[in-house]
Amino acid sequence: MLLLCVLPSRTNHGRRFATVTTGYLVIDPPSLHAITAALQLPLLATPQQLCALSFPPLKRVCALFWFFFLHSSVRKEQREEEDTMEGLSYARMPRVKIRELKDDYAKFELRDTDPSIANALRRVMIAEVPTIAIDLVEIEVNSSVLNDEFIAHRLGLIPLTSERAMSMRFSRDCDACDGDGQCEFCSVEFHLRVKCMTDQTLDVTSKDLYSSDPSVIPVDFSDPSATESSENRGVIIVKLRRGQELRLRAIARKGIGKDHAKWSPAATVTFMYEPEIHINEDLMETLTLEEKREWVDSSPTRVFEIDPVTQQVMVVDSEAYTYDDEVLKKAEAMGKPGLVEIIARQDSFIFTVESTGAIKASQLVLNAIEILKQKLDAVRLSEDTVEADDQFGELGAHMRGG
Ligand SMILES: [Zn+2]
Predict the structure, then answer these.
(1) What is the strand order of the sheet 131-142 is part of?
(2) How far, in Å, from the CA of 181 to the mean position of ligand 1?
(3) Cα 133 to ligand 1 centre (Å)
(4) Rounded to a whole number, what is the distance in angstroms from the first to the last CA of the chain?
(5) Measured in angstroms, how far is the CA atom of residue 246 from the centroid of ligand 1?
(6) Residue closest to 246 by CA, chosen among 190, 195, 189, 191
(7) CATH number of 130-264
(8) Structure confidence by residue, pLDDT tens digits, 138-168
(9) List of the chain residues with pLDDT < 70
């Protein structure tokens, strides 16, 4: 017989271990091992140390009760931890709800996931979804006011329709042209020939670029319902006066925003944490109507409103809240801290995606998810770098900082 007291404790990492102090429990060494093993508690004292402790017989009964209490509380704690783990684990099934969808704009909710996933999605949309952009320019004639490099740079920034980009090859991986980057699998050729023959200044625009592939053309931003105006003539490259000429050949290639911003399909991708706003109704009722109005007006955005009938303050648009803390500061200044509680939900996000027009906003999101999945597969295989390289080519090298 020996006595001990098993105290469940927690380390920083939330792992339990048993501390043995002078105490209560009556068990022989083999049972002790069995119990600690069952509770998954490593033992911090040897059975020999424990045997040296004395034990008043009267406390045996209490000891047993306490042990069972302890056992059940440890189990409860374990269960709670398992529940929490379930709530936060990667096995969660995120949900997406689309709120607004246009060709170049998408707004959607992403729920039941954590900020790391939301941010990964945002970053992949900006920097890793491929598009096609002009990458090589051979100028034949340029007598315009802009120098060759300037024009090449402007050409690179013109968004090209890039539905083909996901299936196209990166020029550096293309074996059909040995990395030359000028074959049909990894490039699209453009030609531009413009000369100004009149006294009127001539605008050279993206519409003057002729593509060798009808599926890859400069994005058309014009509004079909509008008449001929400056907006529907394409993206201006340079302006020519009488006698000036521009003649060039350009090669467009597949690329990602991480290599150069011209390949980014995203104009803006943002997400916000969904705010959860709770008004302390009791405290709010202690305010006069004038004070309520003053407090509601302290918010720079229209989040709260006063019901004209009941004169109660209510939340009209929680998402208009910009985490500016103005209403909290105002409540404090009025001597009513705790008037409102605002929590940023850590598992719900509202995304806004604007595309450059290279691919549709909806396709941008889908491609980003696809790439994110490929990256995760590459991580899984990253230990075996040869296999990763075989399967993912430059993506594997990319993961290792290459
Ligand atoms: Zn090629």
Answers:
(1) 131-142, 245-255, 187-195, 210-211
(2) 5
(3) 15
(4) 64
(5) 27
(6) 195
(7) 2.170.120.12
(8) 999 999 999 999 999 999 999 999 999 999 9
(9) 1-91, 224-232, 383-402
What pLDDT, in 10s, does the model give residues 261-286? 999 999 999 999 999 999 999 999 99
The topology under which CATH files domain 281-338 is Alpha-Beta Plaits (3.30.70)
Q: For 381-389, which contacts have Cβ atoms below 8 Å and span 24 or more sequence positions?
A: none
Tokens describing residue 307: 């019901």
Question: How far does residue 179's CA lie from ligand 1's centre (Å)?
Answer: 6
Our CA dihedral for 70, 71, 73, 77, rounded to 10 degrees, sits at 130
Task: Tell whether pTM > 0.90.
Answer: no
- Hey, where are the domains in the chain? 2-88, 130-264, 281-338
**Ligand 1 centroid from CA 170, angstroms:** 8
